Amino acid sequence: MGEDSDHIMTIEEVARYLSLHELTVRRLAREGKIPAFKIGRQWRVKKDLLDRWIERETMKNIGEGDSAWGESPDS
After folding, report:
1. Most buried by CB count within 10 Å: which residue of 4, 26, 34, 59?
2. What CATH number should be reported for the domain holding residue 40?
3. Percentage with pLDDT > 70 across the chain
């Protein structure tokens, strides 16, 4: 395992990484939509789990007919 696989990110880091607002990331964590866990009152995310989640979500979206450029394959 590399250093990245053990890296634990804060909500702020995840928000920057995903280009989302911190409140959006907190909501996604609270709703169980991203792989996050709490230490005390603070949310944390393991980077390797987040990267795998991104890969799964990307494949799921592509499987629903979206291309990487947001166009339908029939266009």
Report:
1. 34
2. 3.90.105
3. 79
Position 47 in a domain:
yes
Residues 44-69: tens digit of each pLDDT: 999 999 999 999 999 988 877 655 55
Residue 41 near residue 47, CB atoms below 8 Å: no
- DSSP single-letter state for residue 69: T
Start-to-end CA distance of the chain, whole Å, equals 42
Token couple for 25: 């990331």
Report how many domains make up the chain.
Answer: 1
- The answer to the question of residue 33 being in a domain is yes
Residue 28 is predicted with a pLDDT of: 97
Cβ neighbour number for residue 2 with a 10 Å cutoff: 7
- Residue 52, domain member (yes or no): yes
